[in-house]
Amino acid sequence: MSVWRIGTFNVNGIRARQDILLSWLSQSNCQVLGIQETKVQDSDFPASVYEELGFQVNYVGQKSFNGIALLSKRKPDELIDTLPGQEYLGARFMAARFGKLWVINSYVPQGRAVDDPAFQSKLKFIKAIGDYIRCHALNRQDLLWLGDINVATQDMDVHDPVKLKGQVGFHPDEQAALSEVMQSCGLKDLFREKNPGVRAYSFWDYRVPNGFKRGLGWRIDHMLATSALLERCESCWIEKELRGLPKPSDHAPVMASFKME
């Protein structure tokens, strides 16, 4: 039995955040990391610097926006980098199998505004991930769906639930879509399971003046696991100190540790 640390981190530009990411990875003892919003086309992805740290590097990207990557200490036994029917939304999905463990890494569309067609695309993307999980019966195995899911699910997941209710990221239609997938696939919110009643955030908008220092955050980066995997989860936490570094991402990593065979 060994302990695996698995995480998710929207870096908001992997080249812009390279120094922060390399420094953190060198001491994080992370076995698998899902990265979102790499903002780089495949030919320019800086894979070699992460390979030097002992990671297998898989990625699918676009120029200047979107982009997703998976760093892992062992090579995946299977790797899928497209979500059927959702390719038009860009590089936002990757699924990998490590033995009995499946990891889905996703960058769910933000949605722009409730009356924007992008909001409906967001709801369809969330549903499509649920369909993918059920179609391939991944929920019958050790499954971890992680990433920037761009939905805060409870009042304690945003700094001002009264003011923000109904806005993109905290809208009941998004919450219902995510809840349906979680219920139908038997997924649990690891952070909430391990930290009941704790108010904590993983995202602080750049556009809010001193938003991080003032605690004006959202918890929209998630790790959702099947019950079998939840039983082996020791802890789940947010490494918010990275958001306070110079030139940070607007997100912080979310991490969990698991007892693995």
Can you put this structure into words, describing what you see?
With 261 residues, the protein is of the alpha+beta class. The chain has seven helices and twelve strands. The protein has helices at 18-28, 47-51, 117-135, 161-164, 172-185, 190-194, 227-230, and strands at 2-10, 32-36, 56-60, 68-72, 78-80, 93-98, 101-107, 142-148, 187-189, 221-226, 233-238, 254-260. It has a six-stranded mixed beta sheet with strand order 3-4-2-1-12-11. A six-stranded mixed beta sheet has the order 5-6-7-8-10-9. Helix 3 (117-135) runs parallel beside helix 5 (172-185). The protein is globular.
Write a brief structural summary.
The chain is α+β, with helices and mostly antiparallel strands and 261 residues long. 24% of the residues lie in helices and 26% in strands.
What is the makeup of the main sheet? 6 strands, mixed
Average predicted confidence as pLDDT: 97
What gyration radius follows from the Cα positions, in whole Å? 17 Å
Q: Number of DSSP helices?
A: 7
Total strands: 12
